[in-house]
């Protein structure tokens, strides 16, 4: 299976482009995974440098449907090592970025079966670490920030109190209030943790 370069389109504003790995290094052919977070858009992909001479983009101008994900293959015919760039643009050139790409046969994912947790999360209780790790991958969220951890703890506490009150008080109004609290907390965490 080819390696992947993930590109986010329309994430922060219309025609915005963000790349997960910059620079990108791979052992050969790879897929560009275009993740559209907004309205439909045309995306243009091109190769520069030695990469242009040794490879090709199978679909250089795909149309991304709204809120859709699409894969575009980049086929590399030569053995590395060599470099180049992948140019990505949207909005008919309104937004454009250039991602340095290095083709190296010795490159590839380093797989560690059980990586050590980052120092910022190592001191957290075991049951909180998965949430902190997920928060770390969300743009603009610092999982080690005490405010973020307090917010997650507050959400968990609100759920716990709501369930306790619902189990003690046998009332339809209390049950409806508990359902509102649960839905609000679940919705907020879902928006926060959405990839």
What report would you give on this structure?
With about 200 residues, the chain is α+β, with helices and mostly antiparallel strands. The chain contains five helices and ten strands. The protein has helices spanning about 50-55, 120, 130-135, 145-170, 170-195; strands at about 5-10, 15-20, 25, 30-35, 40-50, 55, 65, 70-75, 80-90, 95-105. Strand 1 (about 5-10) and strand 2 form a beta hairpin. Helix 4 (about 145-170) packs antiparallel against helix 5 (about 170-195).
So what's the overall shape? elongated
Main sheet: which strands, in order across?
Answer: 2-1-4-8-6
Q: Over the alpha carbons, how many angstroms does the gyration radius reach? A: 22 Å
The helix fraction, in percent, is: 25-40%
Strand % is: 25-35%
List keywords for this structure.
alpha+beta, 31% strand
Spell out the blueprint of helices and strands.
Layout: E1 3-9, E2 17-19, E3 24-26, E4 30-36, E5 41-49, H1 50-54, E6 55-57, E7 63-64, E8 69-76, E9 82-90, E10 95-103, H2 119-122, H3 129-136, H4 146-168, H5 172-193
Parallel strand pairs: 1-4, 3-10
Antiparallel strand pairs: 1-2, 4-8, 5-7, 5-9, 6-8, 9-10
Helix pairs in contact: 4-5
